[in-house]
Amino acid sequence: MAGSDPVEWYYVGVDVGTTSVRAALVTREGQVKTTAEEMVTIWKPHSDHYVQSSIDIWAKCCSTVRKVTQGVQRNQVRGVGFDATCSLVVLDQNFQPVAVNLDGEAERNVVMWMDHRAAEQAARITSTGHRVLSRVGGVMSPEMQPPKLLWLKENLRATCWRDAAHFLDLPDFLSWKATASLARSLCTVVCKWTYCPTEKWDTSFWTAIGLEDLLENDHSKIGNVTCCPGSPVGEGLTQEAAAELGLDTGTAVGASLIDAHAGGLGVIGADVRGFSLPCEDQPITSRMAMICGTSSCHMAISQGPLFVPGVWGPYLSGMVPELWLNEGGQSATGSLIDHVVKGHVAYPQLQEQAVKGGEHIYSYLNRHLSSMAKDLGAPLELLASSLHVWPDFHGNRSPLADPTLRGAVVGLPLSQTLDDLALLYLATVQALALGTQHILEAMTQAGHDITTLFLCGGLSKNPLYVQIHANATGLPLVLPAQTEAVLVGAAVLGACASHDYSSILLLQEEALCVPAPPCPPEGVHGPYE
Question: Which residues are in coiled coils (predicted)?
């Protein structure tokens, strides 16, 4: 810790999620003082194509940061940290955007994480059986960058591929935009690009899949300088970036994280003493961080590498320095629930009832299910016992690792009432929870010993989703007292870069990752007996 100072210090965390940019001003004790949010545009030019604009995203980063820092002096902001989805940003030699679709609109230069256009390229990469695949569960996902790059070369050779000079993960684009440094975070290149911290880029892999041109000029297009998350990037904010963000030139910027990893960093080190949890006084490796929003990520760390079939990793220093990370996940969770609920014939009736009661639609559905259970004299969990959902509407990320899988619903009645909608919602949540249990079983069989789940993200605020997961897994679930764990995780990066803390691990022990005050009793959910 830095020495005492009468001036209150703050750190800014910026989280670029799938649909919005959020920023937070965070105190030294890890408390979120103010937040701001702005939506970002998503284009869907073709089936399985999802595209964004790096210009739009950066503009929203700047406006949200200016909003959250309005009430403090610039010199009180000691550091800035960014996290973002693992989307692919393409820039030319002048750092201008390059179109990633046939429409040729240059500002649409981001291939989103959930873009599955490269499914065929991913399958071909998997068929090579290359040794780097052992670090991604044996199967290359279309959500990773190599298949996306291969698709661009094969389909946009005369435009995007010809003009592109820089391919960056979105978190690295943000740190570049802030500092003018092209250093890549180990989080992004290890987890999504097959980079190995000890062996660097595997040239035989890129040659084998037909992307040998990315090896030119010492890998300049994909990065030849890396750094650990939270380490200082460049000389801090450039004059231009500082002016856009409303901060001082030279303010420290921490090497970035993928958004799910920021959430994991924000909760996995939480202090839960006094709640008699099985992870108490146990290594951090007994915990799993589950970041649940549009999609879900299941983050488990280990002292040594553990190879889990169908689960990404092991990644050295992918989230916590010097520890190995395995990352399971579900490609559609919050988005699946929205899809199922909003596509039902009874959705307008649901909206009407929720508005009438002044409730969110999911709060209403949860209450409606409780009423149905009471009326029927049956446990809520058994209401949908004759209705079954296979939740892989956007493929299975883990542990089957099959992006071609599609969803199914079995047991639908001929009626389409509000009760039917509520039951379909319940069955969908239960299916997602059983998917989490499937991932846990795969990790356990590979050597993980996970005793407690730590949740964050939008879905962690849904009590039904949380309780159903506790029931399905048979494990206690912990919710942080500070609900904006992803933003706190991003702020951790800025705090570490400021040198107010010597390392992320020390920072977890001392402040930002420890809920203050400690988690309230209602923050711990156990399975129903």
Answer: none
